[in-house]
Write a structure and sequence with these properties.
two-stranded antiparallel sheet; 6 strands; disordered N terminus; about 150 residues; about 20% helix
């Protein structure tokens, strides 16, 4: 599957990854809140003890490798529309192998089902299936495979 070599191919129009840092996080700190981070014993949907929401990590220089390696698609995929800015969408999107994952801020639990998001998600899910992958949405403990 193309997504193994290029994590964006097949999901967002097959365009190449942008250079890291092409977009900034701005005030977004969703990656410090939504995912679980084993190295920090941080459960999903709980703000990391090193995070200042709206500002960032106070432990940035010595953050774990998982945090160092992670960039959401907003940061790397310049073709992602402005409405996918995590500070606007309240969602964080990333790709691992054949899986495209969307983590949704539980305070905005249904936003992924609204337009323009749902149309994009269905299109991406179709592209993923054609390439042997899939798209899943997490809202707290609820997991949905987008068809």
């Amino acid at each position: 599957m193309a997504a193994i070599d290029d994590p964006v191919a097949g999901f967002a129009g097959g365009v190449a990854r942008a250079r890291a840092g092409a977009r900034s996080c701005g005030v977004c700190t969703l990656c410090c809140i939504l995912p679980d981070i084993d190295e920090l014993e941080k459960p999903a949907n709980v703000t990391c003890r090193h995070c200042v929401p709206g500002s960032g990590c106070v432990n940035y220089d010595v953050r774990p490798q998982t945090c160092r390696d992670f960039l959401c698609l907003w940061r790397t995929e310049l073709q992602l529309a402005d409405h996918w800015d995590p500070a606007v969408s309240h969602m964080m999107v990333y790709v691992q192998g054949p899986q495209m994952t969307v983590l949704v801020d539980p305070a905005y639990a249904t936003i992924w089902q609204r337009e323009p998001y749902f149309d994009d998600l269905r299109r991406w899910a179709g592209e993923a299936r054609r390439n042997g992958g899939y798209l899943i949405v997490y809202v707290a403990d609820v997991v949905t495979v987008v068809e």
